[in-house]
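Please review the protein record below. Tell me whether the encoded fold seems credible here:
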Amino acid sequence: MGVKHAREYAVIIDDMVRGIGQVNNVYEFFDMTEGEWLELELPEQEECLKTLADDIFYGLGSEPVMNVGDGVIRHDGDNHVIRVHDGDNLISVIYLI
């Protein structure tokens, strides 16, 4: 079962990239050090985050909670949103409809 959505997929992914990009230590998901992550040009970082957002979106269809870096991404199907938390802080809400 996938994540149901009515918004354009590309827009949802762009929103997820912005949210996931704010998670502390997100680079650990890529088995990178902070230094290695910072050596990447911004477009390279964004491409990595876009691929990650795409993978997370599809993963949330079967697993409603995923850990990334110091963050947690949760799919709330009842409210049609994806929430991005960094530690205990809610940092982004991605609307699916």
In short: The mean pLDDT is 95. The longest helix spans residues 42-59. The radius of gyration is 13 Å. Residues 9-95 form one domain.
